[in-house]
Amino acid sequence: MDKCYPISVRLCGKKCLVIGGGRVAERKIISLLECSARVTVVSPELTERLENLVAAGHLVYRQGEYDTDDLQGVFLVIGATNSDQVNQKVAKDCFERNILVNVVDDPLSGNFFVPAQVRRGSLSIAVSTDGKSPMFARRIREELEGLYPPEYSELVELVGELRSKVINEIADEQQKAQILKQMADGDLMQLLREGQYDRAKELVKDAYYRSRG
C-alpha cells in the first residue's frame, strides 16, 4: 500500500455525512461538529445524545437507510453502520464521485484515515498507522496524553496571539524570524517538560516584549 500524506482539513461550513446512528457514529459526529462542519446523519435510529443534537438544531437527521442521493453536495463521508455491506457500498459510491470517505471498521476501504489524536486546544498531535493498526495508534496516543497535559492549550493560545502581533508589527523579516524562534526555543521546551507552565508563559512574553524595546 502507498504511504499516506498527512493533512489537517478545515471543515468549517462543509457538508459532512455520517451513515449510522450508534455510539461509534456519535463519536465521529461530535468530532465533526467540534470542527464546525455541517453534519447530516442517516440512520433508522439514533442514540439519545444524537437525538438531543437534532432537537437542538445542531444536526440534520434523515431517518432511514442509506441512499446514493444522500451524497449530493457532500464534502466528506463517514460510514459507521453495523453492516459491512452498507459500509462498502458507501465507500464504493464515494470513490466513484471523488468524495472523501472513511469506513470506521475497515479503514483500508476508504480513501482517508482518522488518526488517533491528542487535542490540547489548538494543539493537535495525530498518530496514524495508515490504517494498519488503529489499536496500536490509540496506545501511542494514550502515552502522549500523559506527556502533553492540558496546560499546553493555554501556552499554544498565548504563542499564537503573540506570533500574530510579531507578524503584524515587525517589518524586518530577519528580526521577525529571530523573535519567533526565541518564543519556542529550547529553554521553553525544558520548562514544559519540568511542568513549569507559568514560567514557560513568562518566557514567551519576555521574548515578545524584548523585541518591542
TrEMBL record:
Please give the catalytic activity noted in the UniProt record.
precorrin-2 + NAD(+) = sirohydrochlorin + NADH + 2 H(+)
Pathway involvement of the protein, from the record: Porphyrin-containing compound metabolism; siroheme biosynthesis; sirohydrochlorin from precorrin-2: step 1/1
Keyword list, A-Z: NAD, Oxidoreductase, Porphyrin biosynthesis
Give all residue intervals belonging to the Siroheme synthase central domain: 120-146
Q: Name one GO molecular function term.
A: ferrochelatase activity
A single GO BP: siroheme biosynthetic process
Q: Does the keyword NAD apply?
A: yes
An example Pfam family from this entry, by short name, is Sirohm_synth_M
Q: Which domain of life is it from?
A: Bacteria
Instruction: Give the main EC class.
Output: oxidoreductase
**UniProt keyword Nucleotide-binding present:** no
Q: What is its EC number?
A: 1.3.1.76
InterPro entries given for it? Met8-like, NAD(P)-bd_dom_sf, SirC_C, Sirohaem_synthase_central, Sirohaem_synthase_N
Recorded protein name is: precorrin-2 dehydrogenase
Which species is this UniProt entry from?
A: Desulfofarcimen acetoxidans (strain ATCC 49208 / DSM 771 / KCTC 5769 / VKM B-1644 / 5575) (Desulfotomaculum acetoxidans)
Q: What is the lineage of its organism?
A: Bacteria, Bacillati, Bacillota, Clostridia, Eubacteriales
